[in-house]
Amino acid sequence: MRLDALDGLRTLGHRLPRPAPPCHLRTREQIEEEVGVIETHPAQHEAFGPDRRVHGSYPTRVTDELAERLRAAGCVFAEDEANALRAAFSGEALETAVARRIEGSPLEQVLGFAAIGDVRVDLGPGVFVPRARATAIAEIAAARRPDARIVVDLGCGAGTLAAILATRLAARIIGTEVDPVAMSSARRTARRYGFEVAEGSWWSPLPSSSRGRIDLAVAYLPHVPTGQLHRIHADFRAHEPEVSVDGGPDGLDPWRAVAHEAASWLAPGGLFVTLIAPEQRTEARRIGEDAGLDVEYEESDDDLVLLAHRPGDR
Length: 314
Ligand SMILES: C[S@@+](CC[C@H](N)C(=O)[O-])C[C@H]1O[C@@H](n2cnc3c(N)ncnc32)[C@H](O)[C@@H]1O
Prior knowledge:
CATH superfamily of the largest domain: Vaccinia Virus protein VP39
GO biological process, one term: methylation
Number of strands: 9
Strand content: 15-25%
CATH architecture of the largest domain: 3-Layer(aba) Sandwich
Pfam families: Methyltransf_25
Largest sheet: 7 strands, mixed
Helix content: 25-40%
Strand order of the largest sheet: 5-4-3-6-7-9-8
Radius of gyration: 20 Å
Domain Methyltransferase: 151-235
Number of helices: 12
CATH class of the largest domain: Alpha Beta
Shape: globular
Bound molecules: S-adenosylmethionine
Keywords: Methyltransferase, Transferase
CATH topology of the largest domain: Rossmann fold
Structural class: alpha/beta
Protein name: Methyltransferase domain-containing protein
């Protein structure tokens, strides 16, 4: 979870505090200079050609009234957003959706889904918007444990990591989540991808029969230090619950809670994978080692993927 003010802007729903110039007039590099490196939505992969200039039918949409309204509200990819909204809604429902977007609701919450990696998760209002950077957790986890049989996604939110893992592994997958609003989205995502969900804190709602038998656990834990929450983009602060991002004084309280019980839930040789900020490296390792786990790191762009192993033979 990046701590800069642009966190949350890196999805299709980039919004600036002022009208954004038409994106077809600018290269991707120019846009990235303004808003940071862009994690593209599949729609944008189609929109950006090999020369990294916006192409296709975009110039004809310059006069698009809906795109103009979205641009005036600061939406960087106003043309893409207009198309996405029109594809999902029509008539009065479209007007309501546009009003919510202009008022600052993240685009994915307005659309009711987020397309991330190669999965599509249900996303109701007030549910954490999946970040593309978190897909590294699931990809690395699946690559490290392709033969995992029991897998858990702790704090599954809308079910993003569980959904990705369900497309990669032939395993029983269970997502846990404490927030009942996120659980509603997770349940719908779970039906599509065939995993289970259980409501409660971290490991506690898991079936007791899985204790000591979990081959692989993943989590995109809240890890923003409380004092830095104000740096998250205002649209996301207003529409995502604090419990999804607030990691306590140093951002590592959720990891402390999860690590504390990890060795009793993981199978011998079992693996837990999460993502932290580079400045949390030393303390996060100490927490894992104090809990009896062997900790290693893999770099992923600006983040660190933490891999904690329960010692023992698999
Ligand atoms: C950063 S979000 C990640 C959500 C999802 N894994 C994703 O990548 O989109 C963290 C999630 O942890 C959940 N959470 C926070 N505290 C929790 C707890 N004690 N037990 C279970 N889940 C919790 C939040 O509700 C939120 O959905």
